[in-house]
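Recap for those who missed Tuesday's class. We walked through two folding examples back to back. For each one, the amino acid string is listed first and its predicted structure tokens come directly after. Nothing is annotated here on purpose, so try labeling regions yourself before you check the end of the notes.
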Amino acid sequence: MSALIHNKKKRLLLYAVNAVLWLLFLPKNVFGKSVKFKSLPAKKILLVRLDYIGDVVMTSPSFSFIRHRFPNAKITLLTNPSAKVLFSKDPRIDEIDTFNWPWGHLRANNRFSFSLFKELFHLVFRLRRKKFDLMVDFRGDMRFALLFGFFTGAKVLVGNSRSGNKFMLDYASEYDASKHELERTLDVLACFGEIPIVRHPEIFLSDEAKLLATKHLEELLGTSSLKKLAMIAPFSSKDIKSWPLPYFEAVIKHLLTLDYKVVIVGTREDQENSASLASVFPSKVYSLAGKTSLNELACMTLISTLVVGVDTGVLHIASCFDTPIIAIFGPTRSCEYRPYSKFSIVVDSGECKCDQLTHAKCDSQVNGYARCMFELGPQAVIRAIQSI
């Protein structure tokens, strides 16, 4: 039982938990009936993707495959509250349930509280009442397989072997760290038949949302400005992915010489830094951080003629369209997490000395930034812009 967990203490704990669970699931694995996946008549399906917006977007081709394979099934997506907003109009999904899982490295919501445990308890029982025929966990998280597969009573459990949990699942794809995340999510579904060749992220935006986003930008910038609009996404939920703001200043300065109108996007937490960056270019660059809904932001990536940013969900949203993207990478592996688009250019430092598989912290920071990001100067990004 292998596990792709890089923190040594967590890995040892996981091995111990896996050993106990292996014994508990041994009777099922020895005496249980094998599942005939290619003829499985699933009528109620639970898809689990509780991590970040970008991860959910990269999983969207799998939603298409599941809907194609089970056209008459009722499909429920369990995801984070932000993703619910983005996928609320998705015709592939019949129902969305949410839970804000506390990931340890986030600035906020990074640990379980009593109220969160209580919410999780009620969620599991609510899902159990729906009597799912199939549960698919795209992350390969043993906790999710237990909580939303085993404890909800789902008849068939499918996922990947990331946390060494093969014995818990009726089918577990191999977790290949050399593959792109989008491709790994499709691997999870290989048991159901041939995976389609056409693979691209997809989200569905209403015409009303597009009109509202267009109106917002026209009021801010003017009608003609939308013909050459650059969106800057300098912020990430993980500080280690940050690129120095003075470098973004240099990139924005270059974009202004090319007659681009520039908007900076981010969350409410990013408002101060975003406003500070925009203030360097008064009346020329506009901060929209914390001022748009996620749907409006998605529409703006569609309207934009260029999106430049660090490894963040905005770039993955932009990859759903034909918008050119410049993606700045360092501590995270671009082969796994680059925007999955033929219109994307990756600027990768290739100099990260830390463990890119964990991308949790940098042991050799420079001025508060990961060394690989600090040493990746703005000229590399400017050259990428010039190549478009």
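Example two. Treat it independently of the first, because the proteins are unrelated.
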Amino acid sequence: MKMKFWGVRGSIPTPLSPEQLRRKISAVVHRITPKDIESPQARERFMARCPESLFGTIGGNTACLELVTDNGQRLIIDAGTGIRELGLSIAKRRVKPDIYDILMTHFHWDHIQGLPFFIPLLKKGNTVRFYSPVPEFEKYLSEQMRSPFFPITLDMAASSKEFIGIPDGLFSIREFEIRWKKMQHPGGSVSYKCTAGNKGVIFATDTEIGQEEFSHTGENELFFRDTDILIIDAQYTLREYIDKTNWGHTSQNMAVDLAIAWNIKHLYFFHHEPIYTDNEIYRMRKSAEWYNQYLGRQLVEIHIAREGQEIVV
């Protein structure tokens, strides 16, 4: 199974500003020596040495994750602005009419606002199937696509559309076996554990981790224990979280605690704070790595979710 991040930012789309781009270019230029540009090979070696925070960007689109099985079966989670980029990628490949399955974690703007621009939704012959445990959730997706907010209604989009309520416990979408769990977030949110080919990914955006997630209940054992990858809301530093308790988001240290508690192999920080620069987010990872080492127990590999990043699970 592969996964790809199409949107990783929280709350509101956050394009790289001209000033931020200028600072990145300035920092790269400051590092260059004559030897670094004496040949194409030297130039490539120089670029490979540049810190992640300088060469590229974490990304400003809001939440969208794509999972693809080894047999090419696709599952999409959330429809933030990142789903527009996914749709453009599909359109460029001239994919034949297909079925698109989209799991919805919740219906705050940053998780649905890309849907009107998802090209497969607008193409006749496609079928788009939405899934949520929320009753009558179709109305939440339809509401943003009506006058005066948008010129095209959801009913007018040319694809066939299905709105499917999901059951408690384990259910399947094609090759994926899926569990879901309610999380603490204003208005409610759910996380999903998606398994295919004996590999598992948990997508836990928009959640404020509490004692409940550490309790050794049967539900938690099935959901968290020994999962390959945990993608989790880590919007705040610990200091900022103290000032924003009950806002429905998590600090990076709390995310590390959860991953260690359940023997999770890889931890991806997600739903990045919109006011943070790339440097600030990478510093959060460094702080989390120090905290992980300080605990001196089972170490978890900590990553920053970056837009366009593709990972083999």
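Answers for example two:
The radius of gyration is 20 Å.
The helical segments are 18-31, 40-49, 82-92, 138-143, 218-224, 238-243, 252-261, 278-295.
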